[in-house]
Design goal:
With about 325 residues, this protein is an alpha/beta fold. It has helices spanning about 15-25, 50-60, 70-75, 90-110, 130-140, 155-160, 180-185, 205-215, 220-225, 250-255, 285-295, 325-330; strands at about 5-10, 30-35, 60-65, 110-115, 145, 230-235, 240-245, 265, 275-280, 305-310, 315-320. Helix content is about 35%, strand content about 15%. The strands form 2 sheets. The chain has a 6-stranded antiparallel β-sheet with strand order 6-7-9-8-10-11, with helices on both faces. A 5-stranded parallel β-sheet has the order 3-2-1-4-5, with helices on both faces.
Length: about 325
């Protein structure tokens, strides 16, 4: 066993500190950052990998970014260890990442894994039994070092072999970040990122959209997942849902996310949101979508009711008789 390790670096405070603590012991670190369409950072106009890259650059270490792909969606669809408060398969997610980290560790000739996990910080994935399940399922028994809470756990193989000095590790426990903030000051880590952990799958409203998508579509695409983060969503049937934009920025994003068989509804002679019919629509679906667009345009429509239907590259003008009723929308809204 050598002194080279792969560190899971999210860009959050805990993983940043874990890497720094290991560097202080002379461990050679190669960072691994996972990105996902479910990161809340994308809603804030930032990217998690940017923060992780900044930290890696500051510490002078190499970093590799991996995207959680469509194979991860199947884990979300049916997790072995179940969900948290939403559609978040936290334990299965950690297993997924650690399996990939193990493969990368072997590729680069590293000997163990470093994470910023803290015992008791997250109710689902950061428990003793969860730690053991993650290690067992990923084939990393004794090879996951958690520097921030190591003294609360059994010694790992690198600690037993003296590669890591256990006495210089920490015994942080629980959800408070005061110990981490004090440690950041002690190690002269400034402008550190906010605590990581922004996963949209923990959001109850967003989780409903995810469940609706997975229940109604077998072959999910990345564009399907991106669409979950924009607009108002309404389920018509198993094959179709309608998404109505909420502002100009969302209108633009929706246009970029249109897929084969989708249809786009746009106001023709008034200012308002656009509507996206997801999936091959049936006769009359565009009329309902048009009425929904008219409803959310509100007074901006100024009594005008003409729209265009864009389907398979062909544009057709049409007119609706009235805005959709709120009671109807309420029954379809996801």
């Amino acid at each position: 066993m050598n002194r080279k390790a792969v560190a899971l670096l999210s860009g959050g405070l805990d993983s940043t500190l874990a890497v720094k603590v290991m560097l202080e012991q002379g461990i050679e670190i190669v960072a691994l950052n996972f990105t996902s369409t479910f990161c809340t950072c994308s809603l804030r106009g930032s990217v998690c990998s940017n923060e992780a890259a900044r930290v890696a650059n500051e510490f002078g270490i190499t970093i590799k970014t991996m995207q959680k792909g469509l194979d991860y969606i199947e884990i979300v669809r049916d997790p072995k260890y179940g969900y948290g408060q939403g559609m978040n398969p936290c334990v299965d997610c950690r297993i997924y990442m650690h399996k990939l980290a193990k493969k990368y560790m072997e590729e680069i000739g590293a000997s163990f894994i470093i994470t910023g996990e803290v015992l008791g910080q997250r109710p689902m994935s950061q428990r003793r039994d969860a730690f053991k399940s993650i290690e067992r399922e990923s084939g990393l028994q004794g090879l996951i070092v958690r520097p921030l809470c190591a003294k609360r756990l059994d010694p790992t193989i690198p600690e037993k072999l003296g590669i890591i000095n256990r006495e210089k590790l920490l015994d942080v426990i629980g959800r408070s970040r005061k110990h981490q903030i004090a440690l950041a000051e002690e190690l002269d880590i400034q402008n550190y990122p906010c605590p990581s952990g922004g996963c949209l799958l923990t959001d109850k409203i967003f989780s409903k959209r995810v469940k609706d998508l997975l229940d109604n579509k077998k072959d999910v695409t990345m564009k399907d997942l991106q669409l979950l983060k924009v607009g108002r969503h309404f389920r018509l049937n198993q094959d179709n849902k309608i998404i109505i934009g909420r502002d100009e920025a969302e209108n633009k994003r929706m246009k970029n996310l249109i897929q084969a068989d989708d249809s786009l509804i746009e106001p023709l002679d008034f200012v308002g949101p656009i509507g996206l019919i997801s999936g091959l629509s049936r006769n009359g679906t565009h009329l309902l979508a048009g009425r929904m667009v008219l409803r959310y345009a509100g007074e901006k429509a100024h009594g005008k009711r003409k729209l265009t239907l864009l389907r398979n590259g062909e544009s057709t003008a049409f007119e609706v008789d009235s805005p959709a009723e709120d009671e109807l929308l309420k029954g379809m809204m996801i």
